[in-house]
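#lab-general

N.A. 3:47 PM
ok so I finally got the sequence cleaned up, no stray characters, all 292 residues accounted for. can someone with queue access submit it? mine expired

B.Y. 3:52 PM
send it over

N.A. 3:53 PM
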Amino acid sequence: MPTAIAVTSADLVLPPTDQQTPTAALLQSPAAQPLDAALADMTVLLEQHGYVIALYPASIPAVHERRLHTIRSVLESDRIALLKLDLPPLGVAVLVRQMRQLSICDFSAGVVASAARLLSHYVYAGALLSSVTKLDRVPVSLKSHAKSWVPGSQFGVLANPRPQLVKIGSGDLAGPEFGTQLIVARGQLQSDWVTGTLAPAWRVQNVQESILPAESPRWWGTARLIEFAAFLPDISVLYQLVSSVRREVCSWCGIQLIGDRCGFCLSPLSSVENQTRALGVLNQGTPTHQGP
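B.Y. 4:20 PM
back already:
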């Protein structure tokens, strides 16, 4: 029985990569669903799947996040993982799909939940912006702020895994050193820079188009954007990444995990011993990664 993956917005559920990839459950906001109905839905998910892993952007309204914690508290369930992600919305959607892929593999729910932190390091999430004056989730210098007032200026911004900002025409964004695919979601900005310049520079294997998540304009501070994310599409590579990390047992809730923090109770790993990923899992020389 696969672990249930849940999201807080339907636009975080990208089309499956194959016929085996399951969809994700939707945990609606308090404005869209009363608490008793939300509790009933979560109870059904737990009965059908045993465990639920909910992933959501750090930018969602506080009232929606409180609803998630209320459900977990009222049900008094240690089988619900609530994972807040600092990734931009399209990056969250990419990670959600990878988690959906992993949910049908022979991993325990604890390993799948803690794998989110590991896999997020391999998601290159950014955007092309017409202005950075309201961008507060990526460091922006005063010089960049000043340049954003110049008519026609555009900026390439990388939010994950390492923040970076360049003015288009005066620099390049550092891309992944392993094979990826690129997903692109267009807002109210017209440009072919992402598909015509960034994609070839990053040597992506394929480019996909998607709808822009509703949370993206708020996350990036403008609706005049094109959001993008480069990711590992192959389930066999994802499986090897997770499999090659040493497994531990959470000293607090007793669930199995990888990395240095439990995905369900969020307790840090008590032992100083940590996990080392086997080298050569990715084809093109991924840097050594010591735990997620």
